[in-house]
Amino acid sequence: MARRNEWKSLLTAAEKAGWTHRPCKHGLYVYPPTEGARPIVLGGTPSDHRSYMNTRAALRRAGLTGI
Prior knowledge:
Blueprint: H1 4-16, E1 20-24, E2 27-31, E3 40-43, H2 49-61
Antiparallel strand pairs: 1-2, 2-3
């Protein structure tokens, strides 16, 4: 399972690239800097080690580089 600091570094990298995030009912919405783009949803309680890798892949597919 990914550690808390790995999740934090993922969010920090997204913020440095101009992405924003806000809490939602079950986790976080992470918004790309482009207008009208769909948010990436991060689960609030990721219980599987694959969830971190899947989230990284979704952010890369959405255009985040350097993670």
